[in-house]
Specification:
Chain lengths: ~325, ~375
Amino acid sequence: MTQQVATPAIDVHGLEKRFNGKTVVQDLTLQVPHGRIYGFLGPNGSGKTTTIRMLCGLLTPDAGTGTCLGLDIVKEAARIKRQVGYMTQRFSLYEDLSIRENLEFVGRVYGMDDLKRRVGHALERLDLVSRQHQLAGQLSGGWKQRLALASCLLHEPRLLLLDEPTAGVDPMARREFWDEIHRLAAEGLTVLVSTHYMDEAERCHAIAYIAYGRLMAKGTVDEVIGRSGLVTWTVIGSGLDRIARALAEDSRVVTVAAFGTTLHVSGTDRDALAAALAPLRADPSLRLEPGEATLEDVFILLMRQSRAELRAA
Amino acid sequence: MGRFSVSRWFAVLIKEFVQMRRDRLTFGMMIGIPVIQLALFGFAINSDPKALPTAVRAADSSVYARSLVSALGNSGYFRIVREAASEAEVERLLQAGEVQFALTIPAGFARDILRGQRPAILVEADATDPAATSNALAALQVVARTAFDRDLTGPALALRAHPDPVELRVHRRYNPEGISQYNVVPGLMGVILTMTMVMMTALAVTRERERGTMEALLAMPVRPGEVMLGKIVPYIFVGYVQVVLILLAAHHVFGVPMVGSLLLLSLMLILFMAANLAVGFTFSTIAKNQLQAMQMSFFFFLPSILLSGFMFPFRGMPDWAQAIGEVLPLTHFLRIVRGIMLKGSGWTEIEREVWALAAFLIAATVVALKRYRQTLD
Ligand SMILES: Nc1ncnc2c1ncn2[C@@H]1O[C@H](COP(=O)(O)OP(=O)(O)OP(=O)(O)O)[C@@H](O)[C@H]1O
Ligand SMILES: [Mg+2]
């Protein structure tokens, strides 16, 4: 136990995974302390699911070492599985079992005592008591997600690996879901959660951004934004669509995003960006204000950088 | 929308061809199965079995006895494999299925022939499968009439004129009336079990993979052996329900006797079902989808039904086909179930088949467990 407190809940070094000669995760080093909520972000196909699978022993890394809860991810995968709750990206409960039967199955596999009470408790928390005998396959997409989360929490894991747990979940349920995650983390549970939502990233204690299999940034949201060195201006006025199209072609500008009556422009070089925006200052119908870079801007920058590096390599 | 559109039809057509081409295994099976069927039906199957193993117990060593034995061999239908020393040995050889026929030549055979007394030769045939023995028994009549032609010369020549110098007493053992249901109905039990057991397990695991539930299952702390047994045992129950149905029908509808021990049969059923389930489990570790699993089951079923001795007499097949047949669990189970039900065989008579089944079960289980992946790699 003492060793597990000293080492981070997740501690992996130089993880690598290849499929048919194609490297999909490369030199991935990650530490997640106990009781933390760690966001895992990155574009589609960047290797998030693959990394999570390596962490819980479902895939064997081609290189690298590491521990989960102090247990070796290759040699002690069986013991890791007992203490980890893994929620898959694709719904993987039995559609032809009822909600209750699914939960009971999971409970029995983990050899839990007091099964009836625990399942009952989980159903109450999910607010699914009245529908417990309905087949899981008949649930709507969002409810399936919620059931899947309940089932991977049933055995009281010490580490949660959630792969896009809120995809297709309504805002209210998403809010409840994150409240629940924070409550669990406060009790000492460690959570690694992959997501494509920026607001969810902001609710994490720390995030890691992965693109094309390589970790591009990690730290708190503010750290990641700060370290990116992005400078942002907001343009307010009319005729913004035309301006946005012109700016997007400009190599001094990294991102341009239109939000109704405002335009969000960012770049890495303060002076170059100012020069690019100079012609707009002359237009009396437009107003320029210094803005703040968002996580989204940073991610677009990181994605471009990694793509450029990949091409250079 | 209402009219048939060639371009839309073409869109579906192309998609189907692309999907067909992508599923290599299915494509291979579609070509492979007819080839195998041709080979099996064309070369392996022979409804006129020859060279059937025969034991001879001769209490007379005269030239006449020897002529009879060599004439048997020359007929092509009989292959003398044993000289039995006693009645008990004859009984044992037949019961264990080591020989198809046993001939007993009485003492004073030569003397009785020369006296024109038409000595009686006892021919015992294992008639559990009437199809396997009928042609041979017909040939035997000719053999008995002509075997002594060369020996009966000089003063004995007159004896040739008599239609038959010897009397043939044919005992069709275990199935005296030659009822084919006696053979088919117990065999059907094995065939039905093979089909359901292999296919059900092959599908049960493949289904998990196809529906994506495998990933969650693998992420849970459940061991391969636990998954395997958990998936197999329910089908053993299903198998027993099938067996009860078939046994009831065998007894009440077809009047098939049950000479041996029901308990022994039940135990053998477990072994046989387990062997087939292990095959199904192995298939499920190879198949990528349920269609492939179905096809692999069929791939296994085809030789099982054709080469096991269920449809066609085992001893009528060429050696290579018999060698394949010997590997299949159904072959051994058929011998066991026919032995127990029709011949009243006990442990000693079926022991060899039991070991063969057990060896198959162990091999299939090892392959299944070796192939079962605890990861998604
Ligand atoms: N079993 C597999 N065989 C071959 N390639 C694979 C396999 N699994 C994943 N990949 C490839 O690995 C890369 C990373 O996939 P992964 O599923 O980890 O991405 P992801 O970050 O989870 O994407 P998403 O956000 O879309 O879920 C992809 O290019 C994918 O095509
Ligand atoms: Mg993914």
